[in-house]
UniProtKB/TrEMBL annotation:
Biological or metabolic pathway of the protein: Amino-acid biosynthesis; L-methionine biosynthesis via de novo pathway; L-homocysteine from L-cystathionine: step 1/1
Reactions catalysed: an S-substituted L-cysteine + H2O = a thiol + pyruvate + NH4(+); L,L-cystathionine + H2O = L-homocysteine + pyruvate + NH4(+)
Highest taxon of the lineage: Eukaryota
GO molecular function, one term: pyridoxal phosphate binding
GO biological process assignments: 'de novo' L-methionine biosynthetic process; transsulfuration
Taxonomic classification: Eukaryota, Fungi, Fungi incertae sedis, Chytridiomycota, Chytridiomycota incertae sedis
Keywords on record: Amino-acid biosynthesis, Lyase, Methionine biosynthesis, Pyridoxal phosphate
Protein name: Cystathionine beta-lyase
Assigned protein family: Belongs to the trans-sulfuration enzymes family.
Region feature Disordered, mapped onto this chain: 1-35, 47-87
E.C. designation(s): 4.4.1.13
Ranges annotated as biased composition (Polar residues): 50-60
Entry annotated with the keyword Zinc: no
């Protein structure tokens, strides 16, 4: 980002970031009387002017080899149009790991010290230190959680063993008789866990089209405990208006907690807590780690009440991220901005290439290309208003399952793999792979095309990626 954006602001305006909330020996009681309705509406302390959104135009496919500078792609708004968290711009905050009294390091190590220990000795039989048992707290984890809380604009954050364990912890806020409202085009694992919740406990789960506020409202009531959102959705990149749904929930289900799965965007591109959500979570396995070398989940909350409830469940169930994985995740997060910038830029170029393919008579080659950076993508204005970029996942159809299969198998650089967020580019057919667990009739009902190809774009030279795709499309007879 350029140097003419707002000046750094003082540390004292940051929300307080406590260390551990529990030790194994103390803090065993969760306050059953916590009233979520008492949570004040979140107000981000600061404003920032920043945008790194990529606008795709057909010219983007022409000319250069992809080695364009960030500033050519980004538009920097100087006047505070976007809400801000923290003191510096997000790319700076990713690498700036601050020391905190909860993590005493007399040697001031540049890399977070790794405490591979299950237990911590007490100074006497009666005096307890800050840490006693790593399920309850570990300094390496505390350092990571403080860093992630800052990036997410969260009051507190929790590093957990996977994205699914993050959702598991969150769903434990729901009690018998209460209800969950969730999208109908959600991550397959989320669907599976919510179905388990609905069949194993007295909890009702409503699925609806969260891209339309009007289809969410009828499901909201005083019984609603969680409203679970994902935007953009995967693999069709549908956009959910987070501010509008938060407003509807506050009005129709005042005791409900708005939860956003922000895995597709990462905190670098979208910070739902700044848009009014109560809880945000990420699969840390994806962009936060960036290298597909660990599993992790991250939860960020906007209030102390929610922090205490989540901390209780994490300590009670023992799903916190082990120290070594905390160390790895911290290392990954430091390069989040530079990876995301590059991946997003590459994705924008590839989307423009695919969308611009024409036959000799000038008609479109590909029936559809789904990418929020493309002009005309449904919900693009909403996406642009709530995020700072289109991300690095896109999908397209070829019109034929057979041809799509050939394209997927015909690329040389793109690995055929589920998941996304890695520095390597990946290609998949969701209906055969990540979404195969959803029955065919449900896939059809959700208009998930069987010939859909998903690309998760990495940091390679974009010209190589485009040539690789072009070769595979040609070999498959698509072009
Ligand atoms: C991968 C993913 C998850 C689950 O995370 P794991 O780390 O695999 O448990 C949840 N939501 C989304 C959107 C994901 O992509």
């Amino acid at each position: 980002m350029t140097s003419d954006a707002p000046a750094p602001v003082g540390l004292e305006t940051r929300p307080s970031l406590p260390g551990t909330l529990f030790t194994e020996q103390a803090g065993g009681e969760v306050n059953a009387g916590l009233d979520l309705r008492a949570v004040p509406s979140y107000k981000s302390p600061l404003k920032i002017g920043r945008s790194n959104s990529v606008s795709v135009s057909s010219e983007a496919t022409e000319g250069d080899s992809g080695a364009r500078s960030d500033s050519e792609e980004g538009t920097v708004e100087g006047g505070g149009a976007m809400e801000k968290r923290g003191r510096f711009r997000p790319a700076t905050e990713c690498v700036l790991v601050e020391s905190h009294p909860s993590v005493h390091d007399p040697y001031r190590a540049s890399s977070t010290p790794l405490y591979i220990t299950a237990t911590f000795k007490q100074s006497s039989a009666t005096e307890m230190g800050e840490y006693d048992y790593s399920r309850s707290g570990n300094p390496t984890r505390t350092q990571l959680e403080l860093h992630l809380a800052k990036l997410m604009s969260a009051h507190r954050s929790f590093a957990l063993s996977s994205g699914m364990s993050a959702l598991d912890v969150i769903t434990r806020l729901v009690r018998a008789g209460e209800e969950v409202v969730a999208g109908d085009d959600i991550y397959g694992g989320t669907q599976r866990l919510l179905t388990f919740l609905a069949t194993h406990s007295a909890v009702t789960v409503h699925h609806c089209d969260t891209t339309k506020v009007s289809s969410v409202i009828p499901h909201l009531s005083p019984r609603t405990r969680l409203v679970l959102l994902e935007t953009p959705t995967n693999p069709l990149l549908k956009i959910v208006d987070l501010r509008a749904i938060v407003a509807a929930v506050r009005q129709h289900a005042p005791s409900a907690v708005v939860v956003v799965d922000n895995t597709m965007m990462s905190p670098y591109l979208q910070r739902p807590l700044e848009l009014g959500a109560d809880i945000v979570y990420h699969s840390g396995t994806k962009y936060l780690s960036g290298h597909h070398d660990l599993m992790a989940g991250v939860v960020g909350v906007r209030s102390e009440d929610l922090a205490r409830q989540i901390a209780f469940v994490v300590n009670a169930t023992g799903c916190a991220l082990p120290p070594f994985d905390c160390f790895l995740l911290m290392r990954g997060v430091k390069t989040l901005a530079v990876r995301m910038d590059r991946q997003q830029r590459n994705a924008g170029r590839i989307a423009a290439f695919l969308d611009g393919l024409r036959t000799a008579d000038g008609s479109r080659v590909l029936p559809s290309v789904f990418y929020p950076g493309l002009p005309g993508h449904p919900g693009k204005e909403v996406h642009d208003a709530q995020s700072e970029g289109a991300g690095a996942v896109l999908s397209f159809t070829t019109g034929s399952v057979e041809k799509s299969t050939k394209v997927v198998e015909g690329t040389r650089i793109f690995g055929i793999s589920v998941s996304f967020g890695c520095v390597n580019s990946l290609i998949s057919m969701p209906c055969h792979m990540s979404h195969a667990s959803i029955p065919a009739h449900l896939r059809a009902a959700r208009a998930l095309p069987e010939d859909l190809i998903r690309l998760c774009v990495g940091i390679e030279d974009v010209q190589d990626l485009i040539e690789d795709l072009e070769g595979a499309l040609r070999a498959a007879g698509v072009i």
